[in-house]
Amino acid sequence: MTEAPHPPIPSFVHHRSRLTEGQQHAWDRWWPERGHDVGDILTGAEPYDPQAWFGRRAPLVLEIGSGMGESTAALAAAAPDVDHIAVEVYEPGLAQLLMRITEAGLTNVTLLRGDAVALLDQRVPPGSLAGIRIFFPDPWPKRRHRKRRLVQPGFVALAAARLEPGGLLHLATDWDDYAQQMRTVCDAEPALENTAADRPGGWTPRPEWRPVTKFEQRARVEGRTVHDLVYRARRTP
Ligand SMILES: C[S@@+](CC[C@H](N)C(=O)[O-])C[C@H]1O[C@@H](n2cnc3c(N)ncnc32)[C@H](O)[C@@H]1O
């Protein structure tokens, strides 16, 4: 690989946030069973082993930045035959997702705490994911912070390499210039093709099935348009 797969600096800022009482309870009860630390997986203290985590071999979708877990839980409930890995650094969000999946009795979600880019780079095998989802990544709107944006050429090449042939990279953002950046970067990645190439601007219509999260709600209130992009990993000839 000629380009560093990592954004030069992390795409997130890790604030230690207090858990609510309910979140703490869910964390203590369920994290040991349903959660894993990316740090442990990177050091080799624990394997990256979806088959063991889920007790089966099924199509695997990895979400980067699951936030409070609304989309993750809803999409996992709607697709019981697909296993979902939610990667997030924000503990209250992970705790909230634990509450959602245990209340709903979902067994097809595993939570990972830590940097999804390092995980993809160092542990996720090439060609192993049916999908990668990135919904409303941190927009880093100030020009001097743009280098923190997740969706950059090296990252997109990495994501494409982790998808199985035909696997989908689904991106959504409410920041116009980030949407343009995503499209430019993904269009330039030879291993990907835009599934909506024939539609105006190459944008995918907002899928009905994606729940409206706090971030999308705020975008609507503030008058920003949401853009979805769905790229497919090409089958190598
Ligand atoms: C703006 S929030 C959106 C959350 C959620 N997808 C939604 O639509 O509500 C972006 C989230 O991505 C997480 N994040 C950013 N970079 C990440 C990385 N490299 N690995 C894991 N999580 C990351 C942040 O902690 C944050 O919670």
UniProtKB/TrEMBL annotation:
UniProt: substrate binding residues: 142, 174, 213-216
Catalytic class of the enzyme: transferase
Keyword Methyltransferase attributed: yes
Pathway: tRNA modification; N(7)-methylguanine-tRNA biosynthesis
Record-listed S-adenosyl-L-methionine binding positions: 63, 88, 115, 138
Signal peptide: none
Membrane-crossing residue ranges in chain numbering: none
Keyword Transit peptide listed: no
EC assignment: 2.1.1.33
Family matches, as InterPro entries: SAM-dependent_MTases_sf (IPR029063), tRNA_(Gua-N-7)_MeTrfase_Trmb (IPR003358), tRNA_methyltr_TrmB_bact (IPR055361)
Pfam families named in the record: Methyltransf_4
PROSITE patterns reported for this sequence: SAM_MT_TRMB (PS51625)
Catalytic reaction annotation: guanosine(46) in tRNA + S-adenosyl-L-methionine = N(7)-methylguanosine(46) in tRNA + S-adenosyl-L-homocysteine
Keywords for this protein: Methyltransferase, S-adenosyl-L-methionine, Transferase, tRNA processing
Family stated for the protein in its record: Belongs to the class I-like SAM-binding methyltransferase superfamily. TrmB family.
The protein's role, per its UniProt record: Catalyzes the formation of N(7)-methylguanine at position 46 (m7G46) in tRNA.
Full protein name: tRNA (guanine-N(7)-)-methyltransferase
Gene behind the chain: trmB
